[in-house]
Amino acid sequence: MRELPRVVITGIGLASPNGDSLPQYRRNLLEGKSGVVPYNIRHVGDTFAGVCNFDPLRYQTRKEVRRGTRAGGISIWCAQEALKDAGIELASRDRARVGVYIGITEHGNVETENQIHEVAQYGFDLSFWSHHHNPRTVANNPAGEVTLSLGIPGPAYCLGGACAAGNLGLIHGMQMLQLGIVDLALGGGVSESIHTFGIFASFRSQGALARHDDASKASRPFDRDRNGIVVSEGGCLYTLERLDDALARGAKIYAEVRGYFVNSDASDFVLPSSKGQEACIRGALAHAGLGAEEIDIVNTHATSTKQGDEVECEAIRKVFSGTPTRVNNTKSYIGHTMGAAGALELAGNLPSFEDGLVHPTINVDNLDPACALDGLVLNEPARYSRGIDRILNMSFGMLGINSAVIVERYRN
After folding, report:
1. 255 falls within a domain
2. pLDDT tens digits, the chain, 412 residues: what are they?
3. DSSP code of residue 76
4. Which of 92, 177, 252, 285 lies deepest, with the highest CB count within 10 Å?
C-alpha cells in the first residue's frame, strides 16, 4: 500500500464575531474580548448572537450580494482571504484542479423564511416569490457561489455535518488531495444561522437558548450557571496543499494535518453520547499514530448547555486524565457558529505553535465540578512550558455526528 502524501495548511481566511483576520481574531482571544452582542430576530425578539462585521463589498458587487446568500458571501470572503494569505494567484493555476469543500449545518432556511415573510405581506401572492429562491437554497450554494466568484471549474460542494461540519470540510479537502483529485483545496465551514428565526425558536423551545444580563457573558461553557447556546454566524476556509507542492513554491506552512476521525453516536436525535465522543477522540489519535499525552491542546466543542458540556468533559476525562494536555474552548468568545465551528475554532488555536500560548475559556466565574478537567485553562492565557506541537480539535453535532482533527507543527 503506497504512503499517502502529507497535507499542510498554507492559508487561512476567516470571518468571526470578534475578528475578520487571523491576527485580529487571535489578539481578541488572548485579550478575552467577546464578539457576542444583543440581537433582535423576527418572531423571537431580543436575544444574543455572534455577528460578523466583514465588508462583503471587498470581493462582491452590490448586485452580487443582493442576488446571493449570506452564507455565500461569507464563503467568498473566506476563500479570497485564504488564497491571499497563502500567496496563491489562481490565474497561475489550473483552476480545474482546485476543489472547494465547505461544511454546513443547514442551508436554505434563511431564504425560505424571508420569502414566506415577503409574500405574506401580499396575501401570499406568489408573483412576489423571487426567481432566485432555488439557487439560493440548494445545499451546494455556498461552494457554488465561491466557484462563480473566483471562476473555479473544479469540484465544489458542501458537506452537511451539523455542527461537526467545519472539520468535515477540512478532512474532505485533505482526502481529495491525497487521492490526487485536486492540487489545491479550499476546505472548512460556514454558517449564516443568525438570520433564521427558526433556529433561535427551536433552541428556546428546548430551554437551550442562552440568557444573561450581559451579552458578552452569555456564552459560558463549563460555568455552573450556564444556561444555553448563543447562535452565531461565521466562516473559516483553509488553503490545503500537498506538502511537496507547498515546499516547491516556498509556502508559509501553518500546520500539518496529522489525523482525523468521524463517527456517529447512533443513539438520539439531540442528546450527545460520551461513549461516542470518546470513541471519536481515540479514533483520531489512532489514525494519527499518537498517544493522548502527545496532544498539547484540546479545543472543546462545549456549547454552554448543561448536559452537553458534562457529557463532553466525561469523554475528555477518560482519554486525557493524568496527561499534561491543556484544554480550552472558543465558543465562550464567539458563541456557536454551527457549521463553521470546527474550522473557525481550530484557526484560533493555530498561532499557539508560534507564540506558545493557550487561549483560555472565558466567562467561567464558578466552575461546574462536573466540568473540572486536568489542564483546563480558564479566564487567562497559559504558557505551555514544554512548547506546543499538536492540537486536537473536536466538533459534534445533532443526530450524533462526531468529528476530531489533529494538526501539528510542521517539521521536515
Report:
1. no
2. 468 999 999 999 999 999 999 999 999 999 999 999 999 999 999 999 999 999 999 999 999 999 999 999 999 999 999 999 999 999 999 999 999 999 999 899 999 999 999 999 999 999 999 999 999 999 999 999 999 999 999 999 999 999 999 999 999 999 999 999 999 999 999 999 999 999 999 999 999 999 999 999 999 999 999 999 999 999 999 999 999 999 999 999 999 999 999 999 999 999 999 999 999 999 999 999 999 999 999 999 999 999 999 999 999 999 999 999 999 999 999 999 999 999 999 999 999 999 999 999 999 999 999 999 999 999 999 998 888 999 999 999 999 999 999 999 998 7
3. H
4. 177
Cell numbers representing residue 127 in the block: 408573483
Q: What angle do CA 296, 375, 231 make, to 5 degrees?
A: 90
Q: Enumerate residues 6+ apart whose C-beta is below 8 A from 373.
A: 313, 316, 317, 320, 327
DSSP-derived letter for residue 251 is: -
The reply to whether 36 falls in a domain is yes
| In a domain? residue 253 | no
Instruction: Provide Rg for the chain, Cα atoms.
Output: 20
pTM comes to: 0.97
Domain carrying residue 269? 260-404
* Length of the chain as a residue count: 412
Domain count, the chain: 2
Q: Are residues 244 and 265 in the same domain?
A: no
Mark which of 248, 274, 296 sits at the end of a domain: 248
Domain CATH number, residue 354: 3.40.47.10
What the block records as the C-alpha cell of 300 is 472543546
For residue 387, what is the DSSP state? -
Sign of CA dihedral 292, 293, 294, 298: positive
- Residues 290 and 225 reside in one and the same domain: no
> Are 147 and 289 found together in one domain?
no
Helix (H, G, I), strand (E, B) or coil at 291: coil
Distance of alpha carbon 377 from the chain centroid: 20
Domain boundary among 248, 277, 309: 248
Q: Kindly list the strands in the beta sheet with 45-50, ordered across the sheet, starting from the edge strand earlier in the chain.
A: 36-41, 45-50, 231-232
Q: Are residues 228 and 344 in the same domain?
A: no
Based on the fold, state whether residues 203 and 283 are members of the same structural domain. Answer: no
